[in-house]
Amino acid sequence: LRVQVFGDLVGPSGETLPLSEVAWEGTGDGFLSGQFTSMGSGVLARWTGPGFHEGSVRYYSPKTDLSETKYTQRIVYSLTAI
Fold this sequence. Notes:
Layout: E1 2-5, E2 9-10, E3 16-17, E4 23-28, E5 34-35, E6 41-43, E7 55-60, E8 75-78
Antiparallel strand pairs: 1-6, 1-8, 2-3, 4-5, 4-7
C-alpha cells in the first residue's frame, strides 16, 4: 500500500507544514512506520498473498503539536498486486 501526498500540508490560516516533517505510525499486520521525504511518497504496508489485513495509520509531526492546528492536503492511496 503506497501513499502519495501532493505538496506541503496547509493549515486553516494558510500556514504550511513541510512534508519532510510528517511521519506516520502503522499498526496491524503488515503496516509500516516511516517519514515522508520532500517528494511526498511512502510505503504504508506490505502483504504477501491473499487475505484480509486490518490496521491503522496515524500521521504526526515530531516537530509540531498537530493537536493545535488541523492541517489538510490531498492524499492518494494505491494498492497494487505483483
